[in-house]
């Protein structure tokens, strides 16, 4: 208990320190944090679906792109504040994910993964033919006209910080709940989970929609920061590829996985992205090495050798030792008296 309190105090201190960055830090680092936050939220949502729910999707970029486009349409055409439009765009993206989930859940395993990718491509082609949002060439976010650059960057940074903290806290609380335990049971065996009274279809749908909402939040935030959007940038399969890389490196099925994986991804991208094709080859080689020799990722190695588990969500059965009670004294029957 003491260790948990210390960890909570340290976490709150770090959040407060991070929130003060606009007052003493440089704009470059705030922009970098926003970019990292978008990757983190996206990877956390993919991890929730695949790592905890067993639903491996290669089409999460559909919700990322829709979140960005809905944000831009609401802000540019509807006059909505861009930061409010991020949330509204995520809600609209989730509403679209509801009917599309009916198609996705007709598929299983590898077919589900490829099916989500195909649906994402359909969404990309559809958006690319809508001229009001720029068509295939995309368009710029003009809703910030008249707003100072410093104010826009500061608020964007704080929104990204709130998104990161909220994602970690809400996912952790969910996984510690009965619903989180049910989700992990579905991942291990849908048949066994259903036999225990779990509504498998409803739980999978809920996680699919939550993941779509989170990815759309990341998309809206990303393009609020970049101020420009295009179909190729918003719906690129690289978003899901990078999300998978982050989770595999950090540790699939662990909350710490996307945290550490995002940090590693940012470091590699920051220092090696200028090498072009070799950079992508390096990312692939690193992912293959981790898959072959450390399937639980960096967090799995830390847990195995150091016993570090920052966000414990696993249940461990502990058998309690029951002390044997002394047997009651034997009653002796007196045959002569006829009494015991």
Automatic annotation (TrEMBL):
Subcellular location field: Cell inner membrane
TM helices/strands, residue ranges: 28-48, 69-98, 110-134, 155-175, 205-224, 236-255, 275-294
Protein's UniProt keywords contain Transmembrane helix: yes
GO molecular function list: branched-chain amino acid transmembrane transporter activity
Keywords linked to the UniProt accession: Cell membrane, Membrane, Transmembrane, Transmembrane helix
GO CC annotation, single: plasma membrane
Stretches of the chain forming a coiled coil according to its record: none
Membrane topology: Multi-pass membrane protein
Principal subcellular localisation of the protein: membrane
InterPro entries associated with the record: ABC_transp_permease, LivM-like
PANTHER family in the record: ABC TRANSPORTER ATP-BINDING PROTEIN, HIGH-AFFINITY BRANCHED-CHAIN AMINO ACID TRANSPORT SYSTEM PERMEASE
Protein name (Swiss-Prot/TrEMBL): Branched-chain amino acid ABC transporter permease
Organism: Parathalassolituus penaei
Lineage: Bacteria, Pseudomonadati, Pseudomonadota, Gammaproteobacteria, Oceanospirillales
């Amino acid at each position: 208990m003491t260790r948990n309190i210390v960890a909570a105090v340290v976490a709150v201190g770090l959040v407060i320190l991070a929130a003060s960055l606009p007052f003493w830090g440089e704009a470059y680092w705030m922009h970098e944090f926003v970019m990292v936050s978008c990757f983190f939220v996206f990877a956390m949502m993919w991890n929730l679906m695949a790592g905890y729910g067993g639903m491996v999707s290669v089409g999460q970029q559909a919700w990322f792109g829709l979140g960005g486009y809905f944000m831009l349409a609401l802000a540019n055409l509807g006059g909505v504040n861009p930061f409010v439009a991020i949330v509204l765009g995520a809600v609209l993206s989730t509403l679209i994910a509801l009917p599309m989930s009916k198609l996705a859940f007709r598929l299983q395993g590898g077919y589900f993964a490829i099916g989500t990718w195909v649906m994402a491509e359909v969404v990309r082609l559809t958006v690319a033919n809508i001229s009001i949002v720029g068509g295939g060439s995309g368009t710029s976010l003009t809703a910030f006209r008249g707003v100072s650059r410093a104010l826009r960057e500061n608020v964007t940074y704080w929104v990204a910080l709130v998104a990161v903290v909220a994602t970690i806290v809400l996912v952790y609380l969910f996984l510690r709940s009965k619903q989180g335990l049910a989700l992990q049971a579905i991942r291990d065996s849908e048949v066994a989970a259903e036999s225990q009274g779990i509504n498998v279809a409803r739980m999978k749908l809920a996680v699919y929609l939550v993941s779509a909402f989170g990815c759309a939040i990341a998309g809206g935030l990303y393009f609020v920061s970049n101020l420009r959007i295009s179909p190729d940038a918003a719906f690129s399969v690289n978003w899901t590829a990078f999300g998978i890389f982050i989770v595999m490196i950090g540790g699939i099925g662990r909350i710490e996985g996307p945290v550490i994986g995002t940090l590693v991804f940012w470091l590699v991208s920051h220092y090696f992205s200028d090498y072009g094709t070799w950079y992508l080859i390096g990312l692939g080689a690193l992912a293959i090495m981790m898959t072959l020799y450390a399937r639980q990722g960096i967090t799995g190695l830390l847990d195995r050798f150091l016993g570090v588990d920052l966000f414990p969500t696993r249940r461990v059965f502990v058998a309690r030792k029951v002390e044997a009670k002394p047997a009651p004294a034997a009653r002796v029957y007196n045959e002569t008296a006829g009494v015991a």
